[in-house]
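Researcher: We're teaching a course module on how sequence relates to structure. For the next exercise, students receive a sequence and then see the predicted structure as tokens, so they can try to spot secondary structure elements on their own. Here is the exercise chain.
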Amino acid sequence: EDAKQILHDDPSTPAIGVDENAALVVVGNEALAVSGDGKATCHIVVPDEETGEVISAPLPTSWQEPVPLDEILEFPIPATGEHLEALKEYVDTDFVIADDIISEVSHHSSHSELSGNEVFPKIVAAGKPGALQLQPIFDKVIELSGSELPKLLYIGTASFDRTDKFNNCTKRFRDIGCEVRRLDVSENESVPSLEDMREMVVDWAEVIMCSGGNTLHALIRWKEIGLDLLMKEASMKGTVLCGGSAGAGCWFSSLHTDSLRPDNTKNKEHVLDELTEEELSDWNFTKISALGFIDAMCVPHFDTTGTNGHSRAEDAKQILQNDPSTTAIGVDENAALVVIGNEVLAVSGDGEATCHIVVPDEETGEIISASLPTTLTEPLPIKNVLDLSIPAINN
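Model: And here is the predicted structure for the students to work with:
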């Protein structure tokens, strides 16, 4: 509190507080917090330029790699409540740009009719970002790229271009020697020219990975700057599209999302530090449109419960009950749905997690679901999978 008072009197200097059993590790112009007892950490304390109020936020101690100091010093400055209110205006926006791709691939009975990079889209949609680091799912991304060391383009818009998320999501690829680039477009000042974006997205990348985070924020930004259309163009030349959570749901025609969650903001640590448990749990899942490469509603984190106390699986079923026109595909956190042209395959990252088909029964109106097998070595036509009855899936 005394340090905050000093900053209030002299707002020219940010402060970094270090708990007694913690340390700030600085490597060049990057840093990370290390806890000695599993609880202590470091805290960024800065004056708010707009209000003059002194605000603070704790640093995570889970980082394995350092983050630029400039980014760390912005940690207490979250996307504001007004930002979330603005997102609500876009809930009914149509973000679909790939419905013609669905129509085109549906003319082929299987992806084996095509060869090489003519097969599109190629998608690995995981239940959470970390699932892409699990060996079976990671191997599938490499396999689909057709290269032992594919060139990876990371797009972290949904996580507001945070470096710690980039580090976590790309680690396995960097560890094996893949060339990795990142495209930051969350803020206007970081958006490259259209020509530079095209070079990265269409001409250079063999794999495009989109981060987890706030899907609605990402879809808005991509539509505003034309990145959605560039990703569509890349997919049509055989580039692999992948991601977990928001980075999975964005490829579907719609998704079940927590984009309006109070802490689903740029620097959620500050929000978690400021809001009460009641405030943090006061939100609802919602269904939004997405890019449309897969004609279904994606439900990532299918096997989990949200911070609002609602089961994602049960909430998705309620959405289908209210709007039975949409089939849903639930993806457990440690699983991925792999799409190759007009065929799909469920891949388990831990031997247990899988994907689930959730459909309304045309006769009874009841919402029914079944798990996809993860033992198949060859994909199944997506139309057949989405139309399967429960007994057929279980058999």
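Model: If you want an answer key for the exercise: Confidence is low (pLDDT under 50) at residues 112-117. Residues 314 and 346 are 21 Å apart (CA to CA).
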